[in-house]
Each structure stands twice: as structure tokens, then as C-alpha cells.
Design goal:
Bound molecules: NADP nicotinamide-adenine-dinucleotide phosphate
Protein name: Short-chain dehydrogenase
Family: Belongs to the short-chain dehydrogenases/reductases (SDR) family.
InterPro entries: NAD(P)-bd_dom_sf, SDR_fam, SDR_oxidoreductase
Structural class: alpha/beta
CATH class: Alpha Beta
Shape: globular
Keywords: Oxidoreductase
Largest sheet: 7 strands, parallel
Number of strands: 9
GO molecular function: oxidoreductase activity
Radius of gyration: 20 Å
Order of helices and strands: EHEHEHEEHEHEHEHHEHH
CATH architecture: 3-Layer(aba) Sandwich
Length: 276
């Protein structure tokens, strides 16, 4: 069955590959991006099944218009993908206020407003699926990515709550959590100017590992996108899907450690209840 998709952030990386893969198998895609012209080649090839709209996800007003327009033109949209995002790199006190605001406005508020914008349309059509591209960094944390983690942990909490609100309307969610993956992500990163005092700290180590190429990027973008499509096609999608061996190892280790810490504090934790 031909499906219709709406995807944000399709000029490069996972969003673009996803658009290409879906068109190649015959699906219809509304692809949104900030750079008009970036998908001209695909438009020439798949003009009938591809609609390209300009959208910066920090512009909520424009987003509402683009989404309403897409639902009106397509009739039904089966899967919406909240993919647009980038990384802010640097220790928390190295980042400027403006860098922090843009990171949160794009990855967190942009994703929240996108989901809020599509919900009434999905309810009106009797249901649908929302794919939120998060990251292994939505469940674990590396030094130097604190603001990025704040956005990915934040969107995962938002989605987990909203999923419970809208399940009765036939709307479900798939949170995708790739590990480091070969896309344009490194080039698109916003880098805070380093402070010398962090040179000999874990933040400095991560900075050096990334600069020297020692930080392994094991994720294959095409395989990541293929796994996303399989999960998005499934009758019942998992709420969370980690992708890649790095994500699997880091998330399983972090969850085990969190459970260990919870159990280690159990007596203190339970002592906080009211006496009855
Ligand atoms: N690659 C990884 O290692 C990795 C791992 C885990 C999660 N992720 C997540 O995967 C998603 C896609 O990233 P990617 O790896 O494919 O990197 P990418 O190649 O840099 O793609 C990011 C896309 O997001 C778009 N974007 C950024 N800010 C935007 C805004 N304000 N409005 C609209 N579009 C915007 C970019 O558009 P422009 O071309 O206009 O900048 C680009 O199309 C992101 O949410 C990222 O956090 C990536």
C-alpha cells in the first residue's frame, strides 16, 4: 500500500535519505527544508509523488501553514517524521546564551510545536504515526553535548507523555535513537569557543577525540533509515528504537547503572513516604 509521509529537515542526512528511500519504493512524501532547491534533483525524478515545502522548524506560524497545506493537498498523511535538528558542541559554560536558545528552539521547541501542529490533523483523519528522531543522547550523556542532551531527553519525555494522551485517537509514536551516524551532522554542528580550563577534563578529552577522529562513528545512514522504515511500517511500532551497536551498548549500560543506583538508594527513597 502506498503511504504518504511528511518529513522535516530533508536537505541532507537522515531526512534526505529517508525521502529518497520512500520515493524509490513508490510512497508519497511532503519534504520540508530550509534550503529551497536542495531537492530539485529528486523533484525532477519524482515530481508526482514529492512535494517540497520551505520550513524552518523554529517558525511555528509557518509550520502551521505548511502542515495544514500538506494535509489539504494530500488528503491523508500516514506518517509524520520530526527529524530536523543539529548538535551544539561545547561545555555548558562555553556556550553563549544565543547558542543555547537556538539549540532549544530548534530541537526541543521545534519538535514539540511540530507534534502539536500535526495532532489535530491526525485526529481528524482517525489516526496516524509520529516518528520522532531523537538520539542515543536521549537516554545517555556525553560531556560537551549537555544542551543537545537537554533537547533529546526533553523531547523523549514530551513524547512519552503525549503518546498516552493521544493513543485513544489512534495516534502512536516511534522514537528513533541512532548512535553516531555518518551524515552531515558533524559539519552542521554549532561549536562553542573552548575555554582553556576544560582542556584537561572529560570535556577536553571528548573534544580531542572528535578532532582527531578517534571518536568512532559506526552508524551507516542508509541502514539507519532502512531500520526506521521497517519500524515505522510495523503494525505496532516500538515506542523507542535504538539504532546501531554504539547506541545499544551505551543505552543498556546507562539503564543498568540507573537501576543499580535506584536500588542502592531504595531504603532512603522509601523513607520519604508519609507515615500512615
Ligand atoms: N548523525 C548522527 O550521528 C545522529 C545521531 C543521533 C541522532 N541524530 C539526529 O538525526 C536528525 C537528523 O540529523 P542528521 O544526522 O541527518 O544531520 P544533518 O545531515 O546535519 O541533517 C540535519 C537536518 O536538519 C535540518 N535543520 C537543522 N535546523 C533546522 C531548522 N531550524 N529548521 C529546519 N531544518 C533544520 C538541516 O537543514 P539545513 O541543511 O538547512 O541545515 C538538515 O536538513 C537530527 O535530529 C539529529 O539530532 C543524528
Amino acid at each position: 500500500m502506498v503511504k504518504t509521509w511528511f518529513i522535516t529537515g530533508t536537505s541532507t542526512g537522515l531526512g534526505r535519505l529517508l525521502t529518497e528511500r520512500l520515493l524509490a519504493r513508490g510512497d508519497r512524501v511532503v519534504a520540508t527544508l530550509r534550503k529551497p532547491g536542495a531537492l530539485d534533483g529528486l523533484l525532477a525524478q519524482h515530481g508526482d509523488s514529492l512535494q517540497v515545502l520551505t520550513l524552518d522548524v523554529t517558525d511555528t506560524g509557518a509550520m502551521r501553514i505548511a502542515v495544514a497545506d500538506a494535509f489539504a493537498r494530500m488528503g491523508r498523511i500516514d506518517v509524520v517524521v520530526s527529524n530536523a535538528g543539529y548538535g551544539l558542541f561545547g561545555a555548558a559554560e562555553e556556550a553563549s546564551d544565543a547558542q543555547i536558545e537556538r539549540q532549544i528552539a530548534t530541537n526541543l521547541v521545534g519538535s514539540i510545536q511540530f507534534i502539536r501542529t500535526v495532532l489535530p490533523h491526525l485526529r481528524a483523519q482517525g489516526g496516524g504515526r509520529i516518528v520522532q528522531v531523537s538520539s542515543e543522547g536521549g537516554q545517555i550523556a556525553y560531556p560537551n553535548f549537555s544542551l543537545y542532551h537537554a533537547t533529546k531527553w526533553g523531547i523523549e519525555g514530551f513524547v512519552e507523555s503525549v503518546a498516552k494522551e493521544v493513543a485513544p485517537f489512534g495516534i502512536d509514536f516511534l522514537i528513533v535513537e541512532p548512535g553516531p551516524t555518518c551524515t552531515n551532522f558533524a559539519e552542521g554542528m554549532d561549536r562553542a569557543p573552548p575555554m582553556p580550563c576544560y582542556e584537561d577534563t572529560p570535556a577536553g578529552e571528548v573534544r580531542r577525540a572528535i578532532a582527531s577522529g578517534a571518536f568512532a562513528i559506526k552508524g551507516d545512514a542508509a541502514r539507519t533509515v532502512d531500520a526506521m522504515i521497517v519500524a515505522a511500517d510495523a503494525k505496532a511500532a516500538p515506542l523507542r528504537l535504538a539504532l546501531g551497536s554504539t547506541a545499544y551498548a551505551s543505552i543498556s549500560q546507562a539503564l543498568a547503572e540507573r537501576l543499580r543506583q535506584l536500588e542502592a538508594q531504595k531504603a532512603v527513597t522509601l523513607s520519604a513516604d508519609r507515615e500512615v
